[in-house]
Specification:
This protein is an alpha/beta fold. The chain has 18 helices and 5 strands. The protein has helices spanning 3-11, 21-27, 40-48, 63-71, 91-94, 96-115, 119-130, 137-140, 143-146, 155-165, 174-190, 202-205, 215-230, 249-258, 272-287, 297-310, 315-331, 339-350, and strands spanning 52-57, 78-82, 194-199, 236-242, 263-266. It has a 5-stranded parallel sheet.
């Protein structure tokens, strides 16, 4: 290893904790590869059987990466409908009709964006995704248009969905709006795809600044009446569930009274060996080198301990520390990221001298 290679890793943002959604599948290291099964395979099985699944874990533990890796596969049969509620007002998660209208608007918007791509651009994105590689730089600016919703890349399918949903009166009762959604889902199924509604940012909408509703109200309404209404749709349902919800009476009451989620699946902890594989994947993609030639064993172990005990399994935060350690190693002209770099980065990122 050389300082020049470390500089290359830095320039390629090798330890970026928040990559583009379209690139997340390329960076993800499957938990099932640890010689065990039951994580990626369980999510895929739930999607194929249209089970209503909650994927739980703390912030930054890898819920989104897990779902993107498992569901965003242009060669597969799953049609994930990613529905974000992070930037909407409270009523979207308090009112069933508003959420149904938001769902329709999300699907139409995705189809429109995908339809605006040229065939060449679409092929470049699909090829990178199918080979589990990050997008080339020239295609990164196009990624937001497709937004990793590969099922809408089919022009004919997008047209069917658009013709079904455009012009729907979103002011009608929730049941009527959802019936229009069902017709669009049937069009997707006719193309031999399994539609699955995915909400992976539930922790964002419950923390929105300036909200007029309490977190209990938002959690209770969304995981109760709103998700219950979605069980009427001919689709699977996968929702990211923050661990804090499990301690909230409103969440438990919503699950008990409405039963929208049939099962909760916990994201496994990232242990030392798993973190080593993640760092190895990042360094290989960025500079075609192994993690052993970029980080010392002691540095990897220090990062794993930070992830376990200090960052509360927030892998994004741990990767942020790895990035800061990389900067420190480059700045001192080193050929390898050492434990001392991790210790210095932990102090910088966590604001304490107990990081090493």
């Amino acid at each position: 290893m050389s300082n020049e290679t470390l500089t290359q890793l830095l320039g390629e943002h090798a330890f970026d904790g928040s990559p583009l959604h379209v690139d997340m599948a390329a960076f993800h290291v499957p938990f099932d590869d640890r010689g065990r099964t039951g994580t990626e395979s369980s999510v895929l099985r739930a999607a194929r059987s249209t089970e209503r699944l909650g994927v739980r874990g703390p912030i930054g533990c890898g819920k989104t990466s897990l779902l993107r890796y498992t569901l965003d596969d242009p060669t597969g049969t799953i049609a994930p409908i990613w529905v974000s509620v992070a930037f909407d007002d409270d009523q979207v998660v308090l009112d069933v009709r508003r959420f149904a209208a938001h769902l329709i608007q999300s699907v139409v918007r995705d189809a429109q964006r995908a339809g605006s791509l040229t065939a060449r651009d679409r092929d470049a994105i699909l090829t990178a995704a199918a080979t589990r590689r990050p997008l080339p730089g020239s295609e990164r600016r196009l990624a937001a248009k497709l937004a990793a919703k590969f099922w809408v890349a089919s022009g004919e399918l997008a047209g069917e969905v658009m013709s079904t949903l455009e012009g729907v009166n979103l002011q009608r009762p929730a049941g009527e709006v959802l019936e229009n959604v069902n017709r669009a889902l049937e069009a997707i199924a006719a193309f031999d795809r399994v539609p699955v509604i995915v909400v992976d940012d539930s922790d964002s909408f419950t923390r929105r600044p300036g909200s007029d509703s309490t977190r209990d109200q938002l959690v209770g309404a969304f995981f109760g009446p709103v998700l219950r209404a979605l069980t009427e749709l001919h689709a699977g349902l996968i929702v990211a569930v923050h661990d804090e919800y499990l301690e909230m009476p409103s969440f438990e009451r919503a699950r008990r009274e409405h039963g929208a989620l049939e099962r909760l699946l916990a994201v496994p902890p990232v242990v030392s060996g798993q973190l080593g594989r993640i760092l190895g994947r990042r360094t290989q993609l960025a500079a075609d080198v192994t993690s052993e030639t970029a980080l010392s064993t002691a540095a990897v172990e220090a990062l794993a301990e930070l992830n376990r005990a200090r960052t509360a399994r927030n892998l994004r935060a741990t990767l942020g520390i790895a990035h800061a350690a990389l900067v420190a190693a480059v700045d001192r002209g080193a050929d390898l990221i050492e434990q001392q770099d991790v210790a210095r980065a932990a102090i910088e990122q966590l604001g304490t001298e107990r990081g090493g």
